Amino acid sequence: MKVAPKSACMIEMDSEELITELNFKHVIVDERLQGQEFNIRKMFDLLPATIADKRTLRVVEIHDLFKAVDHTETMVGSARLFHSLMNPSQSIELVYAKQDSYCELENNTRLQEAIHDFLGEFAKSEADLFKILNVHTHPLIAYGDYQKAVQAIERMLTATARLPQPETSYLDSLFKNISSFNGSPVRSIVGGAAYRTFDGVKARQEIGRFTPSLRFRPSRISLGSLWPAFPGAFFGVAWLSGLMDPFLAKTLCFSTSWFSVVGFIYGLVLKPMFDYDTAILPIRQRLVDSNRFASAIESVAAIDELLSFVRFSQAMPHPTVLPEVTNEVNHFFVAKNLRNPIIAKDDTEYVATDVNLTGARLTFVTGPNSGGKTTYCKTIVQNQILAQIGAPVVASGAMINMADRITYQAPAFDTLSDDEGRFGTELKVTRDIFYSVTPQSLTILDEIAEGTTTQEKVSFSADIMNGFFAVGNNTLLVTHSHELVRDFQDRGKGQYLQVEFKDQKPTHRIIPGISIDSHALRVAEKIGFSPRDIENHLRQKGYLGDGDTL
After folding, report:
1. Residue 315: predicted pLDDT
2. Out of 80, 153, 335, 403, which could bridge 442 as a Cys pair, Cβ 3.0 to 4.6 Å?
3. How far apart are CA 252 and CA 29, in angstroms?
């Protein structure tokens, strides 16, 4: 059953950072790229790290998580969703508000359909709007592109007026943000009359009675392009109608007709270029600088993101639920039948697992390779991120505390530039993580103190894990060192989990206990590099006789 706790649906919303300015500076939404308008890689590179560093986001496959959750209908909606995944909210009020509106939207089919129609209407002309915003036009054809952008804004406002009144504060505020653009001077400029002044392009209400101004008309046809043809036309009529001496009228008609060429050139080339520099680009800049316009576009994106959460839940072949999110001093994560959102969306047989990271501080995960340890840890982080953006998690029930920092250290092998080698490289990463955590942090360590002797590894690892235990945050260590885990078990510190195996095959469940098996032979046989495979290869190549053995 996909319901949220009542406490998660009663809090007022907070504000969120806008993505619109990022696009205006770096063009992360490029309407010219058919099918790839939103540049997810570019946005990843441009956005600064927040509660999760970029190394962590790469390890937990943030791009694949985005693809799993993304059911947006607009380019701005896609950008907003990825922005949220990269920057999980630290405002529990915002999480509650989004959960509140999610509840309303999930249970109101009429509202879902209305928002779907609204987003579809916006998407029809979204590319036209961004063509002007991104300045992907040419002065000689800018009139048509400008008018299409104006029509896109008109459609957005008209479609907003047709939306039903929501009951929740988050959705209501988003609808109002779009509608409030109607009352701004910039709206008057793009929807009515724009006047060029010495202080830039202004709306009628922004200029005084005696302010020198020139009205902008987005058309090649104007008095300036037509008046040069008036003399020739006048004398031509006089010649044909007999109002003047035929010879004189004919002479004057032909002698002034070339003026129309000047008007034609003015209307075809000069006026469009002049208007582009003095009106269209300044109007575009006013849109970019308008807080109300940015808020309106961001609100469209946020509405799309919220509907995407509902579609994600509907498309998932496994139970999803809005977690009960808390903001206690110490981080905890409890979930029933938790699944990996990336894998589970395409696998109806995906095995769920229960997670209880409450009060243990340290959790040691042991077991053979390819048993599911890494997937287990990634699943926790991915669902933590979903919880902190107000989305449902893939579980039948969950209670998740806000994390002020999410870090995932995985083995790195790019140590050529490090004088300390692999051990030094990994230790520096662990050091940086340790110095940054608080009791509210979620930390995953996939092996630590690698690249040294077994004895030193156990000793260093014990010191490091004791440090994390003292901080009191939630730290998970994936390790093959059962000696290290036994040491902490003897001291009564932490909890101990292992990969479950049946008939020498992993069940992909995580159960209590400490694994002392590596199952290295099983992995070697699976990839075709067991001792038998090596001997067979040597015999086939003639390096080993039929009776010889290694």
Report:
1. 97
2. 403
3. 56
